[in-house]
Each structure stands twice: as C-alpha cells, then as structure tokens.
Design a protein that fits this description.
Length: 156
Amino acid sequence: MAKIGRNDPCACGSGKKYKKCCMASDEAAALAARPAQPATPPARQPSLANYFQEHDERDELTEASNAVVDMVHAGHLDAAEQAAQDLLARFPDVHDGYDRLGMVCEARGDHRQAAEYYRRAITVIRDHPDNYDPGFEAVFQKLVDRLEAQANAADG
C-alpha cells in the first residue's frame, strides 16, 4: 500500500485532507507500536570529592611546575633538574616535566638535549589532544627549531 501524503484525501473516505483527519491518530498508533526505547541513564555528575581532588591535583601540578621555573631563574639547576624529574614522575600525562627539563638544559647551554626534551613534550601533547589547545604544539616546535639552529651553529 502506498503511503498517504499529508495533502491527499484521507483513506477513511471523509473527504477531508489526511493531515486534517486521521494523520494524528495514525502517527500516535505508529508511535505506540514501536518497541520501547531504553531510558537514557542520566549524565553522571562528578562528585564534590572528585571535583576537589581534580582541582587539588591541578594546583599541585601548577605549584610544582612553577617551582622548577623559579629554581632555573635562581640558577639552582641541579635542584631544578631533580624537581623536574619528580614532576615528570608524578604527572606523566602532562607536558610540564619535559618542558621544565628542557628549560634546565637550555640554562646549561645543552641545546641538543633541551630540543630533545621539547620533542618529548610535543609527543605528550599529541598523545593527549583533548588536554591542549590546538596549536600549543607549535610553541614547542619553535623552541626545537631555534635550539637545533643554535646547536648546528655551535658545531659549524
């Protein structure tokens, strides 16, 4: 049987257009005949404890990362390197540890090793794209390019 169009005469013989006659009841019957859809579970709301834990970890990461920067600026490079290694061990899924190790190497004048640490930061960024803004990787690529050019100039 062909489907009745909205503006066709109703099949019941009333002479009215289908949309003004039986369309609403036919649609209701078709809806009732469909198998019941499972209820969508409500979106899981993060608990208050998870919220605070997540924010505490971010604060801890920020403080530890900033402390390494302060050590580098103060010239305490051995302590900064150890703190950066600790940062990397505690937060392996963020770029900060490699970034800070790159800073330590730059301060020591080891451009090749600094570039290598920045390449590792790029890998972390690529492995966790949802955690980073698009284009953030480019910041580290510019560092790598600059450091490689400096290292090559020193060699040649």
